[in-house]
Design a protein that fits this description.
- The complex is a heterodimer of chains A (495) and B (351).
- Chain A is mostly helical.
- In chain A, 78% of the residues lie in helices and 1% in strands.
- Chain A has 23 helices and three strands.
- Chain A has a two-stranded parallel sheet with strand order 1-2.
- Chain B is an alpha/beta fold and 351 residues long.
- Chain B folds into two domains: 3-139 and 266-319, Periplasmic binding protein-like II (D-Maltodextrin-Binding Protein, domain 2); 140-263, Periplasmic binding protein-like II (D-Maltodextrin-Binding Protein, domain 2).
- Chain B is built from twelve helices and eleven strands.
- In chain B, strands 2, 3, 4, 5, 6, 7, 8, 9, 10 and 11 form a ten-stranded mixed beta sheet that branches.
- In chain B, helix 3 (47-61) links the parallel strand 2 (38-43) and strand 3.
- In chain B, helix 5 (100-107) packs across helix 12 (331-349), helix 6 crosses helix 7 and helix 6 packs across helix 12.
- The N and C termini of chain B lie far apart (64 Å).
- The chains are: A mainly alpha (495), B alpha/beta (351).
Chain lengths: 495, 351
């Protein structure tokens, strides 16, 4: 086979992935096209937005890396439970946890301004860095770290050995958190200041005119891309490690004060939920009737993210599997990640721009969710495949059967746990969304998270508390279903 | 395992994708299977209160109400912009606006169809359009809410003009004047005082450190938890804070003196949409919305809204309407001033 044939074959293999990403990026492309035609850019809210996002990300990276470093290097009590509880913070937007905290009876709700908002969002998004630091800590060479434990004092060990080894994870966590915060609109509304996203939402709502909004959207997308390009290298260093088979640091028993650090994030989760539970106290009888009326909304709020996540993962697998061994697919994985980083509200406005162009079609929220998360799912697949020993895939290729059958029987079952985790993460982001639902839902449509925000305006606190607890219950079901279905579907094929 | 079963995975993805696409996609104006049994209502009233009306109507008529709400941050302006964008292919049958001015402004854009509801006969003429393009019902007033732990009743503000006094510098909140009833109140000042004086008042509010909140409910929360000492908001938001036993009290502004400004009275507005996909159902729903029965529900609930039918009792937590000095404004003129007011707000507050 000559090199031209080889390039053609590689091109043919990455073509489905490219087509999928192009389709998913079409709403963003529609906005960019409108922007190019208008030639206007409004940068006024970018400095404030960046200041908020970067300061909150700094808080987040500090807390996430500290907790991650402790959990990754010492043996704390109830380690798995602590990780699960901490990561729960990612299953709902920062505003959800904040509103829960404000329902507590000791007046925590009187914070306002960007600095307070940065602190609150920094804490609630700390699991982003925590997870990356945990992943990085599993790749630390055990022998080198054990040597450092023997010969260096703790402070010197952390500064000279641990932090340099975890630096890519901390940097990637910081940048990813900052990118996620660029799309945050609810917290700035609650804390009384403006960001690009609040300006985009309010301007679009005032005009329902994409052309009016594009001058604000373009700089935000540009900022997301700039941070995303700075992030991909450290992020991929963590997610696609060169070594395989390292066991990571040997966990040693922790001293009590050190172990207490790891309780910070679970305590935030429990306090927020306690706030909602406190709010419902005394109103149980009326609430039972009220909650019953929300059950149809709960059903669709669970079904939609699970279905959307399945479609997202399925499309990603179908498109990326043929390209799994093609090096040129890596830039497309980066593009998919950037696609996910574009705020959900902008994706929704992009779909409205496309729909207006096609004269009158409305777009289902599920379509917008899939278009945003398909890149994330492609990344999940790529990470999972990179962690498989290449020899397994090579061995499977020796079995005389069609590529399709081989993938179904050997390839995908091995990737099932990672795909399940990706689907669960994608579904959780969809359940937590409010912007897409408020912009794309047809009349009569309702979703639990949107319902919660609409009720927050004037409903009795007991009702708001019950609505929030229902969101939590739905979240558990969504994660279980979205995580469980790929496992069932893909591991059944082993038989 | 056969080759055919390998196709299960792509087929499942395809099937799920089709199901997903089918849920919510469709041509504008398309209706569900039983189109004659549903009515689409764009509603900027708070969901908590609007649902009382929708449920009562559904129980009475057997017709399903399919509402679309505004978020608190984009109150009313979001839905009016959407109605304008959908003008060529309307999806809504009825617009229930909690902000009189934004709804009345739509009349000038040919978005309202004429319908004189027989149920609105008892509503005074000044609260409805003679040709039936809008009908007012269930009105609210603007009030001042203050935190009783930080402000005594004697020191409480008595006029919105008090908030330009240095004594209140940085201690008061208003909702974003681009949206909802705050936009009505500001546009009403432009109508009442003239553009120059009203714009100067906005500038003075800004210079005196007005805190711009996300919405009226946010103003309520800020006053209730002491982040600010006082705020201007709608009576229903204020009543919710009182009902929740927060340390707050309500003051009705601009009531004292022979030439007192009075407080704005803002009826909800029912409007049949021009080219509504389901005009007949829209008319029947409006008949209910502007009826005594609906006004009674809104008055008795925490919405605490003033009925415009004289023989329906008003809310219990507030003084009767005939004891309140109401700001005399022409709603059509207020609607005309909205764009001027929006420009002034943008220039003064940078919003």
């Amino acid at each position: 086979m000559n090199s031209v044939d080889g390039r053609r074959r590689h091109l043919a293999r990455i073509l489905p992935f490219g087509i999928l990403l192009a389709a998913a990026a079409s709403p963003i492309a529609a906005l960019l096209t409108r922007g190019a035609a208008l030639g206007q850019i409004d940068l006024s809210s970018i400095p404030g937005t960046l200041a908020f996002a970067l300061s909150a990300a700094a808080v987040s990276a500090t807390i996430g890396s500290a907790v991650g470093a402790v959990i990754g290097t010492v043996d704390v009590m109830a380690r798995r439970l602590t990780i699960v509880m901490s990561v729960t913070l990612m299953a709902a937007p920062p505003a959800f946890w904040w509103i829960g905290l404000t329902r507590l009876p000791f007046g925590i709700g009187s914070l306002s301004g960007p600095a307070s908002a940065a602190l609150v969002t920094g804490v609630t998004l700390a699991p982003v860095t925590l997870l990356l630091v945990l992943a990085a800590s599993r790749e630390i060479p055990a022998t080198a770290y054990e040597a450092a434990r023997l010969f260096l004092k703790p402070r010197r060990r952390i500064v000279a050995v641990l932090f340099p080894l975890l630096r890519p994870a901390v940097l990637a966590g910081f940048l990813l958190t900052a990118i996620l915060l660029l799309g945050e609109s609810e917290i700035p509304f609650l804390f009384g200041f403006r960001t690009s996203m609040t300006d985009i939402i309010t301007r679009f709502s005032r005009t329902f005119d994409v052309a009016e909004t594009v001058p604000l959207v373009l700089p935000l997308i540009g900022t997301v891309c700039a941070l995303g390009l700075a992030m991909w290298k450290p992020l991929f260093t963590v997610l696609f490690p060169q070594s395989a088979g390292e066991r990571g640091v040997i966990l040693r028993p922790a001293s009590r004060p050190i172990a207490l650090i790891t309780a910070l994030l679970p305590v935030v989760v429990l306090l927020s939920l306690a706030g909602y539970a406190w709010a419902t106290a005394g109103g149980q009888q009326a609430l039972t009737r009220r909650v019953a009326t929300w059950l149809p909304t709960a059903a669709i709020s669970v079904t939609e993210p699970v279905l959307s996540a399945m479609v997202s993962v399925g499309l990603a697998v179908l498109a990326v599997y043929p390209a799994r061994r093609v090096p040129a697919a890596r830039p497309l994985v980066v593009a998919g990640l950037l696609l996910f980083c574009v705020p959900a509200g902008i994706v929704a406005i992009g779909w409205i721009a496309l729909a207006q162009h096609v004269s009158g079609f409305s777009v289902a929220p599920g379509i917008a969710y899939v278009s945003r998360t398909v890149g994330l799912c492609a990344l999940g697949f790529a990470i999972a495949y990179s962690r498989l020993p290449r020899t397994l895939d090579d061995a499977a290729r020796l079995v005389p059967m069609s590529p399709l059958r081989r993938a179904w029987l050997f390839g995908l079952p091995l990737l099932a746990p990672s795909l399940a985790a990706t689907a669960a993460l994608a579904a959780a982001t969809m359940l937590a969304d409010r912007d897409v639902a408020s912009l794309l839902l047809p009349p009569g449509g309702s979703r639990l998270m949107l319902n919660l925000y609409l009720l927050s305006a004037n409903a009795p606190t007991a009702v708001v508390g019950a609505a929030a607890l229902l969101v939590v219950a739905a979240g558990v079901v969504v994660v279980a279903l979205a995580g469980g279905l790929p496992l069932i579907l893909l591991t059944r094929s082993r038989g | 395992m056969s080759e055919r079963s390998c196709l299960t995975f792509p087929m499942i993805v395809l099937a799920l994708g089709m199901v997903l696409g089918a849920t919510g996609c469709g041509r504008a104006g398309s209706q569900p299977g039983k189109a004659e049994q549903s009515v689409v209502v764009y509603c900027s009233a708070d969901k908590e209160f609007a649902e009382l009306i929708f449920k009562a109507y559904e129980a009475k008529s057997g017709v399903t109400v399919r509402p679309l709400y505004d978020t608190e941050e984009t109150k009313t302006a979001g839905l009016t912009a959407r109605l304008v964008a959908e003008k060529a292919r309307p999806k809504a049958d009825v617009f229930w606006s909690s902000d009189t001015s934004r709804a009345v402004a739509l009349v000038g854009q040919d978005l309202a169809a004429s319908y004189v509801s027989p149920a609105a006969e008892g509503i005074p003429a000044r609260y409805k359009d003679p040709s039936g393009r809008w009908t007012g019902f269930g009105a609210r007033i603007r009030v001042i809410l203050y935190n009783t732990a930080r402000v005594t009743a004697a020191d409480a503000p008595r006029s919105i003009a008090d908030f330009i006094n240095p004594r209140w510098k940085g201690r008061f909140a208003i909702a974003n004047p681009h949206f909802g009833t705050t936009s009505f109140q500001m546009a009403a000042l432009f109508s009442k005082w003239g553009d120059a004086k009203a714009a100067a008042f906005l500038q003075q509010l800004k210079e005196n450190g007005a805190v711009i909140a996300a919405g009226n409910a946010d103003v309520k929360d800020r006053v209730a938890d002491g982040r600010v000492d006082a705020g201007i908001l709608d009576e229903d938001d204020a009543v919710v804070a009182v009902r929740d036993k927060k340390p707050v009290a309500i003051a009705i502004p601009d009531q004292e003196g022979a030439d007192a400004l009075g407080t704005p009275l803002m009826p909800n507005v029912a409007m049949l949409i021009q080219g509504a996909p389901n005009r007949e159902q829209g008319q029947r729903f409006i008949d209910f919305l502007v009826s005594k029965e609906a006004e009674r529900i809104l008055a008795e609930s925490d919405a605490a809204q003033y009925p415009l039918h004289a023989d329906v009792a008003g809310p219990t937590l507030l003084p009767p309407l005939n004891r309140i000095r109401v700001m005399e404004v022409d709603y059509v003129d207020v609607a005309r001033r909205l764009s001027l007011m929006d420009d002034a707000v943008k220039s003064v507050f940078g919003l």
